Amino acid sequence: MTGSEDRSRADETRARLLEAAVAAFAERGFHGSTTRDITSIAGLSTAAIYVHHRSKEELLYQVSLAGHRDTLATIQAAMASADDPVDQLIAVMRDFSIHHARAHTMARVINYELTALSPEHQREIKAVRRVIDSEVRGLIERGVAAGVFDNPNPRMAAIALLSLGIDLARWYRDDGRWSPEEIGDYYVDLGLRIVGARKRDG
């Protein structure tokens, strides 16, 4: 077997373990899940987890870091898709909501199991969360400065907007009443109301 095949197999195993960890943590919580639970879901031996990860906590950290970076990238891409603050907010709310609905299992883990991370890993994840908050708050502030948003507290408004998407992870189900796209459209309307978006002429 070549070195590239070894790396490919190792990458595949790591990915299986991360997916299994998400499933286990979402169902049982971090503290209620064992390494045996994770490897059983992944279809691997219990020892496999320690070949690729130092601990169960490191698995949660890797899941959390990837999930938060993905969320940040989603928000930044949505903002880059338009120039006007109103259009940017529409894109952010739609994409952020759809993203959380489609990845609701991972979102539930990374948002509700943060306290299980080590202090060092918590600091790193919280740093990414601060960037996410700063991006949304900055968007609202630009809208207020441009006169297209009427909101006295952009910081609180940003928290409210982000909370809408985060809470999706708590209640959304794949077989539920609304599709991710329907939720995205509805949350766009809620978001515009929260920031006090002024109606456009025409």
H-E order: HHHHHHHHH
Total strands: the figure is 0
Hey, roughly how much beta strand do the residues contain? under 5%
Count of alpha and pi helical runs = 9
Short description:
The chain is mostly helical. The protein has helices at residues 3-28, 35-42, 48-52, 56-80, 85-102, 104-112, 119-145, 154-171, 180-195. The longest helix has 27 residues, at 119-145.
Please give a structural write-up.
- By secondary structure, this protein is mainly alpha-helical.
- The protein has helices at 3-28, 35-42, 48-52, 56-80, 85-102, 104-112, 119-145, 154-171, 180-195.
- The protein has 2 domains: 1-53, Homeodomain-like (Arc Repressor Mutant, subunit A, Orthogonal Bundle); 54-195, Tetracycline Repressor, domain 2.
- The protein is 75% helix and 0% strand.
- Helix 1 (3-28) crosses helix 2, helix 5 (85-102) packs parallel to helix 8 (154-171) and helix 6 crosses helix 8 (154-171).
- The longest helix is centred in the middle third of the chain and has 27 residues, at 119-145.
- This is TetR/AcrR family transcriptional regulator.
- Residues 11-71 form the HTH tetR-type domain.
- Residues 34-53 bind DNA.
- Keywords: DNA-binding.
